[in-house]
Design a protein that fits this description.
elongated, 18 strands, mainly beta, 18-stranded antiparallel β-sheet, 333 residues
Length: 333
């Protein structure tokens, strides 16, 4: 049995090599065309634990391989996360979410034809929980993510036949603003030319208002499409990152924003949207002023604006405001 191991966290970075000790193992046994491995427990030098138990049968004809695994690590940036099978490997790691403490477990089954090194069918299920997650979705940065996810995948002849997942995020920060009680549903779109994953936010709350959205992603090309809508969101929270001390939101914000691009070329991101603000004192509300950057439009000695409607165009890293409508009891601009 092996006594130690090492591996690269990044295949192209020799400095990412880490490893540890094989702390327990029942080894490998083979009898009557049936192979078993483990349980094998691997302990990383930083306290990471990875355990796997595998079984293979019909080795002389059409083999079937099954495995149960579990991982407990202090952060996702450890070499052992490279052992995670799909679909969790697509979510956690260099191309997905970076996390703090992470626990995960799952089961996988592979069916082979005699003499083939690639499985005819691959089926995998996984459950994961983590905190302190960070991810960049098309230029929208989510941080401090607390997450629990269940996900499964079925692949036949290298074609994804099904991909299904559900996630619950009690809290996260979106561009420094607190998003709460988010539920996500993940599926794949079968009629596309390449693998296309669709994540739908079916529930979510941002400063008292519901938030919904979709994130469509094609891992092979890196293309994405983001659509976000929000209604009755507390304006002070959006602008200042917190609800005002007296509990008054200082107005309500409604918004619809969509943009698309590729992950390796953020400067070519394009999109559009609109923002509507109601029941606000825009001149007097510090949050509104910070959000809209419209202080230079206020007339000298004028008391305030109650409503604002703004059209937005996204061009790379720039957001261009157009068709700005400010409304008050006595003046429309």
């Amino acid at each position: 049995d092996p006594e130690s191991f090492s591996m690269l966290s990044n295949a192209n970075d020799p400095g990412s090599r880490g490893g540890g000790l094989v702390t327990s193992s029942k080894g490998i046994s083979y009898e009557n065309n049936f192979l078993t491995l483990g349980p094998l427990t691997i302990t990383g030098t930083d306290g990471t634990l990875f355990e796997v138990e595998a079984r293979a049968q019909n080795l002389k004809s059409d083999p079937t391989v099954e495995a149960d695994w579990s991982l407990d690590c202090p952060r996702s940036a450890v070499p052992e996360t490279q052992l995670l099978p799909p679909p969790l490997a697509l979510i956690v790691g260099e191309q997905g979410i970076s996390t703090g403490p992470l626990t995960a477990d799952g089961h996988l089954t592979m069916n082979f034809k005699k003499g083939s090194e690639r499985p005819v069918t691959f089926e995998s299920t996984a459950h994961a929980e983590f905190v302190d997650g960070t991810i960049n979705l098309g230029g929208v940065v989510f941080t401090d993510i607390t997450n629990e996810t269940n996900i499964s995948i079925l692949v036949h002849n290298d074609v994804v036949e099904s991909l299904e997942g559900t996630s619950f995020i009690p809290s996260a920060m979106i561009e420094g603003r607190k998003l709460e009680n988010v539920r996500l549903r993940t599926v794949h779109l079968p009629d596309e030319d390449e693998l296309t994953v669709l994540m739908s936010m079916t529930e979510g709350s941002l400063y008292g208002g519901p938030v919904r959205g979709t994130f469509e992603y094609r891992p092979e090309s890196g293309h994405y499409q983001v659509d976000i809508s929000m209604v009755d969101v507390g304006l002070a929270g959006i602008a200042d990152g917190e609800v005002s001390p007296d509990g008054v939101s200082g107005g309500k914000l409604m918004a619809n924003i969509n943009f698309s691009g590729t992950t390796d070329a953020p400067e070519y991101r394009v999109g559009r949207g609109n923002i509507l603000i109601e029941d606000a004192d825009i001149a007097g509300n510090r949050g509104s002023m910070a959000l809209l950057r419209l202080g230079q439009l206020m007339l000298p000695g004028y008391g305030g604006m109650e409503e604002a409607e703004i059209e937005i165009l996204v061009n790379g890293n720039e957001a261009i405001l157009s068709d700005i409508l400010l409304n008050s009891p006595s003046l429309i601009m």
